[in-house]
Each structure stands twice: as structure tokens, then as C-alpha cells.
Design the sequence.
């Protein structure tokens, strides 16, 4: 699997990320770092614990990661969740966006893991 194929599998924006990072080796480095990043897990823990202020901070951080990696499709539910949590409150709409975030994260993680396994 190539980096471009990985982005296609994630349904994300390869053209933007290659312009930003200039080569596939650099993109791979950051994709593999994304797998080790704890932001998503911290977001899930904060939501599970009902700590929506921490959930907001983690969602905001995840939003920045989306922008850096040109995860345009993932950015939308993360951005929506961030705004819904901005005042530390939970709602049915926040739950809906959180479920979208979890689903899209799983797709991204799977594709990156496939890329990583192809690299071995």
C-alpha cells in the first residue's frame, strides 16, 4: 500500500498533505505518529467520565491533528463535536457527532495500520 492509497482508503485529502509535507516518507512518519497519539483515547475517556471540559480540549486537539494531516472528512465531525462541547455541555447532537468521530477514526486507524504493515 502506498501513502496515496492509504489516503484513498481513508477517503482523505492526499493532494493537500503532499503539498504540505512534500514527500511520502514525511507523511508516513506523521501517520505512524498519529497511531501512537493518545488524543482520541483521551477524548473517549473524558466522554465516558462525563468530563466534557476535558472532552472539549481533546476534541480541539484532534481537530488540529486533522488539519495538519489533511483529514478533511474526519475534520467535519471533530469540528462539530468541538463546537458542541465548547461550553462543557453534552447533548444528543454531541453524542451523534461523537459516534461519527469514533467511526471515522476506526477507518483512519485501519488504513494507517495497513500502510504500516505493508512497510514491514
Sequence:
Amino acid at each position: 500500500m502506498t501513502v496515496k492509497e492509504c489516503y484513498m482508503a481513508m477517503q482523505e485529502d492526499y493532494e493537500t498533505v503532499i503539498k504540505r509535507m512534500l514527500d511520502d516518507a514525511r507523511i508516513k512518519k506523521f501517520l505512524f505518529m498519529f497511531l501512537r497519539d493518545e488524543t482520541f483515547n483521551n477524548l473517549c475517556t473524558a466522554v465516558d467520565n462525563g468530563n466534557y471540559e476535558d472532552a472539549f480540549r481533546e476534541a480541539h486537539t484532534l481537530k488540529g491533528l486533522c488539519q495538519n494531516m489533511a483529514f478533511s472528512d474526519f475534520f467535519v465531525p471533530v469540528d462539530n463535536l468541538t463546537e458542541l462541547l465548547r461550553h462543557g455541555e453534552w447533548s444528543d447532537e454531541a453524542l451523534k457527532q461523537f459516534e461519527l468521530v469514533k467511526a471515522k477514526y476506526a477507518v483512519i486507524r485501519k488504513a494507517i495500520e495497513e500502510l504500516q504493515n505493508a512497510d514491514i
